[in-house]
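Hello,

Our lab assistant flagged a job as stuck in the queue for most of the afternoon. It eventually completed. Since we weren't sure the result was trustworthy after the delay, we are filing this so someone can double-check. Below is the sequence as submitted and the structure that was eventually returned. Let us know if re-running is recommended.
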Amino acid sequence: MNIKLRKGLVLASELLLCILNGVFLFILPDSGIWWLKSYGNIFGLISFIIGGIPVIISSIIELSHKDLTADILFSIALIATLYLEDFFAVSILIIMMGAGDFIEEWTLDRSKGNLESLIELQPEICHKKNGNTDDNSTIDVPTKSIVRGDIILVKHGERIAIDGVVIKGNANVDQSSITGESLPIFKKPGDSVLSGSLIMDGYLEIECLVPAKESSIEKVINMVINAQNEKSEFQTLTDKWAQFFAPTIILIAIIVWFLTQNLYYSVTVLVVSCPCALVLSVPTAFIASLGNAANHGVWIKSGDSIEKIGKIDTVMLDKTGTLTTGDLTINKVIENHLSYSSNKILNLSASLEYYSSHPIAKCLLERNSMNGLRIDLPADYDIIPGVGISGTIENQRYYLGNKTLLEMEELNLNHIEKGVNKNLDEFLKIEGDAGDLGLILAVKDEILGFILLRDELRIDVVNFINGLKTLGIKKIGLISGDNEDRSNQVADELKIDFVRGNLKPEDKFEIIKKEVAQNHYVAMVGDGINDAPSLALSTVGIAIGNGGTAIAASQADVILLTDEISNLVHVIDLGRRTIRKSKINIVLALFLNIFGIFLSLIGFLNPISAALWHIIESLIVVINSSFLLKVQPRILKN
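-- returned structure --
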């Protein structure tokens, strides 16, 4: 049975027993039993058995483990009230305690964004195609049995069960549950799709790219579970305070009893001082923020990450696929060898990139396919992140990448064939002036040709940079594996002062290391394999998940699943609000606890009204945290 439902039923039964206790307390005759008095108190006794004894047993177990919690304070208060033969007060205390538990469970469940509905986004059964793609017959199989290379059919009104690529059909796909995009996206052959997405119309045949257990929706579910369970340093600190609080309050109650010789005062102090509001102050704020971020297509892996995000003062950015769309197009192919035509240069380059998931590979393979050229799979394939690729095709070793690759491989490129005038220096000048991404195709002793790729900036990237400045981010930097001219051009366009180009992964790593060593809270935003070390080292690693590599995503603390990079401004703002809200909650909880103790000492509160005060404390903290669910992104303007 659902925990919230079970607690709700127990609370309802205790409420009924309390009402019966109160109604019959003065109607039914005296029982003659010294400790029970009226027969009406039988209902209070039943309430104590149902709701009180389990708490007392739990407290004894916790005490044996040296774990001091609010339940121990309640248990002592219950036993003392029972000793005072006030069964109606016992019923009220149990109801208030049960109401507090129910409110806590309900609030956390609401803040978590209903994990059950998230799990339902992945169908348990999918339609797997028999044989090849021309065979239209399907069989229904468990989603978890689908592996890479399997083909499934998804019809109108059904959810996509796996991550894959469309090989047949057209459809409008609602990805809002995964990416937060408000409008359906039209999908056609060659487009990628995410598990958990809904087919609005049409149908799709999809080839599975990763096993179902590694799909986007499964990763999202696991991230949500981990984020909800993992505590931040801030949250752990409040737990420690609560542990300190319990013995302190018990000591105060003993002193009050000694000074007043009135057990009711001591019980009142115990009840009003339970640190439930303090315990709830941070986790409710953090979980509400995690839910808000998820609604805007940003998945945060832990509560600790949301706290770190709120402290960010430095942001370092990769360029390709991060500030730019990553959807490259070929601007020009330049021949540098009489025997190698532009088509042959393109075909060799696409073959070398066949195993890569980088946007460059996607661009080259798509153009190669459009030209109807056959792929020759490379042997002895070797990738150098941020620099290039080498491989053997038809017994010839080829190199494809930037100038750094040629220098690292110590290629002899002095030979220029007669009649060809596009040498390396001239190419680099053309590339720098155009602001394009340039690839060099070479063999051991000569350059065969050049490919110029163009990559556009994301639509909202200017808003993103301006938003970071509005938040007061002290330092914004662009660190890229692309050449310095192209990196400087993008930095100038976005008005970014700190820019470094032509970097290898270890160079990016050293820049992040230096910033962290200077006690800066650094967010690194990237999407490629070459960004993974920097993402792992930074205070907060942010991966552009839509098209980014799995390695980058695995090293990141935050994953952006949409193309709207400006949503990261909202998350940083949300992190800051979360820290402020948590501090306010802590102050509120402590103030209300201390004020409640004061009211108890002057006799203004009794055990029943103290229980009500305790519930009000928790509600104030919970309601204050819930406002974070409603925070909307700032309106950013160019």
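-- support follow-up --
The delay was a queue issue, not a problem with the job. The result is valid. The first strand starts at residue 125 and ends at 129. The chain has a mean pLDDT of 77.
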